[in-house]
Write a structure and sequence with these properties.
Layout: H1 16-21, H2 25-31, H3 53-56, E1 58-62, E2 68-70, H4 91-107, E3 114-116, E4 121-123, H5 124-138, E5 145-148, H6 150-167
Antiparallel strand pairs: 1-2, 1-5, 3-4
Length: 172
């Protein structure tokens, strides 16, 4: 997936590197390094886009040096202490999916049982959903990255959450 406009400000992208990254150099300079803005710490690999998932969707791009940029908050670590990845079914994609599910459930205001991860705690519901989310959305992503529309991801979470609750005998 190639971006034609900056995911942050919407300006047309002309530089080939910016096109691959999906963000212009001014926005990247402002928003891509840990600590540039209050609350930026705690995101994946210290190079998170501060643009919320609910505004731009779930955004993942790879730089020429192989580092990843995403707007997914790195809330917990369970599978991959080295960070997020995509495009295959390993530990980095699993942690990316877990953190997406966690963030989407928190956006919904979901309050449920929490389970201990390698570092931090996540919602049991996020843990129960993340493998399927990984397989459906993260594994198929191309190496350079892509976007998952927020409404698509949130709709998937709603559907799967209801299925899990029904399996547990909780009727919604």
């Amino acid at each position: 997936m190639i971006a034609t406009h900056c995911a942050i400000c919407g300006r047309k992208l002309t530089n080939p590197i910016s096109v691959r990254m999906g963000i212009g150099p001014i926005c990247a300079g402002k928003y891509s390094r840990r600590g540039d803005l209050p609350g930026a710490e705690g995101f994946a690999d210290g190079r998170a886009l501060v643009s919320p998932m609910s505004v731009t969707g779930i955004y993942m791009r790879r730089a020429d040096d192989g580092s990843v940029f995403t707007n997914v908050p790195h809330l917990v670590v369970h599978h991959s202490p080295t960070g997020f990845e995509w495009g295959y079914g390993g530990s980095g994609p699993s942690d990316l999916a877990l953190n997406i599910c966690e963030a989407l459930l928190r956006q919904r205001g979901y309050k449920g049982e929490r389970v201990q991860c390698y570092r931090g705690k996540c919602l049991r519901m996020a843990y129960g959903l993340h493998t399927d989310f990984r397989d459906q959305f993260i594994v198929p992503l191309p190496h350079e990255g892509g976007n998952i529309p927020h409404d698509v991801a949130q709709g998937w979470i709603t559907e799967k959450m209801q299925e899990l609750l029904l399996q547990d005998g909780i009727y919604v």
